[in-house]
Amino acid sequence: MRIPLAKPKPDFERFLAALDGRVVPDRPPLVEYLVDDSLMRPILEKLMGRPWVERGELADQTGGQMDFSHEAAERTRQWLDNLIAFWLGMGYDFIRVEASLALPAAPLLAPDAAPGNESHTRAWQGLHQGPVTNWRQFEDYPWPAVSDGDFVVHEYLETHMPEGQGLLSCHAGGVYEHTSRLMGYEALCCALIDDPPLVAAVADRIGGLIEEYNRRLLQFSRLGAIFQGEDLGFTWGNPAATMARLRSQALATLMAMESDGSWRFH
To answer: Cys staple from 173: which of 146, 177, 232, 238, with CB 3.0 to 4.6 Å?
Structure first.
C-alpha cells in the first residue's frame, strides 16, 4: 500500500460499528489518539506536497487551548485543512482533534529536542506548585466559561470534511490532568491529606467545565464519539490518582457524562 492513498474511501459508520462490536470489519480500522507534529509534518510536506502550518505554541502552554482570535482565523483554517488531508490520506475513517478551555498554569519552558521540532519550545508543568494551592488562589483563579467560540475547530471540520469521514473529539486533558497542572503534583499530594476539600473543589470545578464542554460537542452531527484522554494512571498506577478521593472525583465526571446514554466510554 502506498501512502498517501490515491483514492481514500473513509467509512465512519463502519468504524463505529466495529468499535461497538456490531460487525467484524474486513480490515482492522486504524486508530490514533494523537499524531505528533514531528511525524505529521514530513508526511504533509514530503509525501503530500502541502505547506506546513504552525498552530502556535499557545496550545502547548495552556493545556491544549488554541488561539481562535480573528487575526489567527486564516492560519487556523489552513491548519485544519492540513488535518483533513493528513487523516484522509493516511487511511483513517475519522479526524481526531481536541482543544482545551483556557486553564493557564505556570509552565516550565525549554527548547524541544524532538527531531523536527527543534524550533519549538516545550512546555510542561513543574512538580512543585501551580497557581491554585490554597482557597484564596482558588477564588482568584480566572476560571473560564464554555462559549460558542470554543468550538470554532469543530464547526469548520463539520462543514469541510469529505463524505464518509467522521469526527472524534474531547476536551483536551481530563480532570486529573488539569487538577495536577493547576495545583502542582507535590502540592496536590499534600492537599489530599492536609486539605481534601480544596482538592475536591478544584476537581469538581474542572470536572464541571469538562462535562459541559463535552456535552456541547454533541451538537455536531458528524461527531461519532467522545474520545477522552486522561492521565489517570497506567498499569502500574499513579500514586496520587489512585488515592480514592481524587480518583473518585475524576471517575464521577466520566460517569456523569455517560449516565444519560448520549455516549459510552470503552
So the answer is: 177
> In this structure, what are the phi and psi dihedrals at residue 172, rounded to the nearest 5 degrees?
-70, 115
How far from chain centre, in Å, is Cα 135? 28
CB 90 within 8 A of CB 4: yes
DSSP string, 201-254: HHHHHHHHHHHHHHHHHTT-TTEEEE-----S--TT--TTTTSHHHHHHHHHHH
User: At CA 240, angle to CA 236 and CA 241, rounded to 5?
Assistant: 70
Identify whether the C-beta of residue 209 lies closer than 8 Å to the C-beta of residue 177: no
At 253 the pLDDT is: 60
What is the gyration radius of the CA atoms in the chain, in angstroms? 19
What is d(CA 108, CA 128) in angstroms, rounded to the nearest whole number?
11
Partner residues linked to 98 by β-bridges: 170
> In the structure, what pLDDT confidence band is assigned to residue 239 with cuts at 50, 70 and 90?
low
| Residue 135: band (very low, low, confident or very high) from pLDDT cuts 50, 70, 90 | very high
Lookup result for grid cell 519549538: 120
From residue 200, how far is each of 17, 22, 132 by CA, in Å?
38, 39, 13
